[in-house]
Design brief:
This protein is α/β, with parallel strands linked by helices and 542 residues long. The structure holds ligand C2E and magnesium ion (MG) (2 copies). One magnesium ion (MG) binds next to loops.
């Protein structure tokens, strides 16, 4: 019970004293005996005492009453304060609830906008496009009209991103988005599909040629350079077009077929548009079947490695082997990596393939070394997708530990464009590999359109001159300026230089005359199976 409660209870229980009687108040008559008088006097004194007690009690009751009134007043006052406070709290809570509701509504609206728009360009995203395309198709169906879908991809955007960095790449994408939007009608939708891919939906077109007119406009609008910081960037686009109902009756088919047409536009030389044609699907189906074959190969030991010798051009000694993967299918000729590596990269299977290749090559190297064959370096090609995967370094360490190969025998071949992505992390991974003792080679050197400063920044051991430059050497006396420049640069940077794709005596003579240290090519040895390579090594030793 509260303090006030206790005080109130005390008061009410004592309140019953209110009706106490005032006993023996009269004086004794004069005709009484002495004894009677004394008794009467005593009785009177007792009555006086009693009265005094009663008076005290009454006073006490009055005091208690005052106290009760005060408590009641206090209680009343307290209730009012509490009520006021509660009221205030209620108002604050209501305001807060209102603010929170508004914030929640804002957040929901923002989230729904974010879910439907691309953060970088503010354009509708894939989800919103699918929605609008669905609506456009339904409308076109009712009114017997056409809808055109254009799939756009910037040409060589990756080089810009890799060489100038993502910040410049992002600003370029924003600039492209603005130009595209300025080119179409209000009723059309420009959307960013992701990366450097955009889609334009023309909700009402009469014929496919209307769409091609817009496509030409979009190509032309990219003509003027984009000025980003101190850079003047030139960008072209490749466009694939699909038209409802001819090229697809639903959103998915239209997007897929426009994408396929875009791929053909790129193949036929970039900066072009291409209308979809049904035979284009054949290629897409072929891609699908390669993916299936790769999955089967991974499950059923269908991958095989061939080894191509690298040779010291002065002495003719074999300095190492490059492991090259092939796909073996029952009874069919081997399938070469040119036909499946990029598909494997697209569908992610490259991770498993890369792991298998590295392990197999290291195992093979260990068994050759165990057999007393000096293999020098075993080189393994690493795709950029693999290299930038999060477990790459751990994977290399694990394979070296599992196979027991001395890391000094392993060389990883990476391409320039692969190295130029995420350069901070690349440098870290390369340093860690170097610490392990693994060597790093730049494959197809000279084709990656990179700045050369990375050659000093990254711990690189070897440059492999791309075969296209070597093929330009037509005779020993002729000048192949790029080849000799790369050899000279490699020397001054103290890098090993290996010329790839040597096919003719003249090429070999020229390279020798320029003191190119090592070479690789059909003239010196074709890629071959492990057994043939071991035989070649044995012969080379004697
Ligand atoms: P690469 O690493 O530059 O390998 C050299 C390619 O040139 C090989 O083709 C080889 O067979 C071919 N070659 C060698 N000498 C000559 C020659 O004298 N003339 C001509 N015309 N070609 C020659 P391959 O085996 O078809 O491999 C093609 C590319 O596929 C490789 O180019 C490499 O980038 C990639 N690749 C091969 N194996 C793997 C692998 O295990 N993993 C990854 N990620 N990529 C691989
Ligand atoms: Mg290679
Ligand atoms: Mg190469």
């Amino acid at each position: 019970m509260s303090k006030i409660g206790r005080r109130i209870q005390k008061y009410t229980s004592e309140d019953s004293l209110k009706g106490t009687t005032k006993a023996g108040e009269e004086t004794p008559p004069a005709n009484m005996s002495l004894a009677e008088r004394e008794a009467a006097l005593q009785a009177s004194e007792k009555a006086i005492g009693q009265r005094e007690q009663d008076a005290m009690l009454r006073e006490k009751v009055l005091r208690e009453r005052d106290e009760a009134v005060q408590i009641r007043e206090e209680l009343g006052a307290l209730n009012a304060a509490q009520l006021k406070e509660a009221n205030e709290r209620l108002v604050v809570a209501t305001v807060r609830a209102q603010t929170m509701t508004e914030a929640a509504e804002d957040a929901a609206a923002r989230m729904s906008h974010m879910a439907q728009h691309d953060v970088l360009t503010g354009l509708p995203n894939r989800a919103l496009l699918t929605d609008r395309l669905g609506q456009a198709i339904a409308l076109a169906q009712r009114h017997d009209q056409r809808v055109a879908l254009m799939y756009l991809d910037l040409d060589h955007f990756k080089h810009i991103n890799d060489s100038l960095g993502h910040a410049v790449g992002d600003q370029l994408l924003q600039g492209v988005a603005r130009r595209l939007q300025a080119c179409v009608r209000q009723s059309d939708t420009v959307c960013r599909q992701g990366g450097d891919e955009f889609v334009v939906l023309l909700a009402e077109v009469e014929t496919a040629s209307n769409a091609t007119l817009t496509a030409s406009k979009l190509i032309d609008v990219m003509d003027a350079p984009f000025l980003i910081g101190e850079h003047e960037l030139h960008v072209t686009v490749s466009i694939g077009i699909s038209v409802y109902p001819d090229d697809g009756r639903d959103a998915e088919a239209m997007i897929r077929n426009a994408d396929i047409a875009m791929y053909h536009a790129k193949k036929s030389g970039h900066n072009k548009y291409q209308l979809f044609a049904p035979e284009m699907n054949v290629r897409a189906v072929a891609r699908q079947s390669v993916e299936v074959a790769l999955r089967e190969a991974l499950d059923q030991h269908g991958l095989v490695l061939h080894y191509q010798p690298k040779t010291n051009l002065e002495t003719g000694a074999i300095t190492g082997a490059e492991a090259l993967v092939r796909l073996r299918q029952n009874g069919n000729p081997l399938v070469y990596p040119g036909q499946f590596i990029s598909i494997a990269e697209d569908c992610g299977l490259i991770m498993q393939i890369g792991k298998w290749v590295l392990k197999e090559a290291c195992h093979q190297a260990v068994s050759w070394l165990d057999a007393g064959l000096d293999i020098g370096l075993i080189a393994v090609n690493v795709s950029a997708v693999e290299f930038h995967g999060k477990d790459f370094l751990a994977g290399v360490r694990a394979v070296l530990a599992e196979t027991g190969l001395n890391p000094h025998h392993l060389e990883l071949e990476l391409t320039e464009s692969g190295l130029m992505q995420d350069t901070e992390r690349t440098a870290e991974t390369l340093r860690a590999l170097k610490e392990l003792g693994v060597q790093i080679a730049i494959d197809d050197f000279g084709t990656g359109y990179s700045s050369l400063s990375y050659l000093q920044r990254f711990p690189i051991d070897t440059l492999k001159i791309d075969q296209s430059f070597v093929h330009d050497i037509h005779d020993a006396s002729g000048e192949a300026a790029l080849v000799s420049a790369i050899i000279a640069m490699g020397k001054s940077l103290k890098l090993r230089v290996v010329a790839e794709g040597i096919e003719t005596r003249q090429q070999l003579d020229y390279l020798q005359s320029k003191q190119c240290a090592e070479g690789q090519g059909y003239l010196l040895g074709r890629p071959m199976d492990a057994e043939s390579f071991a035989a070649m090594l044995t012969m080379n030793r004697h």
